[in-house]
Amino acid sequence: xxxxxxxxxxxxxxxxxxxxxxxxxxxxxxxxxxxxxxxxxxxxxxxxxxxxxxxxxxxxxxxxxxxxxxxxxxxxxxxxxxxxxxxxxxxxxxxxxxxxxxxxxxxxxxxxxxxxxxxxxxxxxxxxxxxxxxxxxxxxxxxxxxxxxxxxxxxxxxxxxxxxxxxxxxxxxxxxxxxxxxxxxxxxxxxxx
Length: 193
Known about the structure:
The chain is an all-alpha fold. It has helices spanning 3-26, 29-45, 53-62, 66-69, 72-86, 89-92, 94-110, 122-130, 132-148, 151-169, 182-192. It is flat and about 40 Å long. 31% of the residues are buried.
């Protein structure tokens, strides 16, 4: 059931983050523009992947270079281009898409069985129950990023921490909302070894 949107979204977010890391290392704007396009495509497949916009848009501010900040309008255009190419229905049948989006936005706030108290730990509990090793990877990776605190680490944390906060407050509790982060976590853990 989750294979198509979640796997595609995870792939595109991972591609976008790899391109962000390449930009940080090489400072070629084509990497950052490619990341913006990939992340726009990601959101067209799964809306919760929009959390990847946070690190993407933060990169020009982390550099301290004014010329990097001039990239922000271009990044927004590339995000929009990726989104529209991935979901042309927003242009062809906007009322249907808006109606579907509003239904999903409402559905996420009440969950499958009605409203629940917001429990920020449910994400960790579900990951522990389903994929214990992944929770260990998450903790080690996040701890290492806080410890190293280089630009790449900050960009990584700007994806993981806000995503955890957002997903943790959603009342429709399902581990699949966190799946788009798994490849990035694995990639970053591999980088730290």
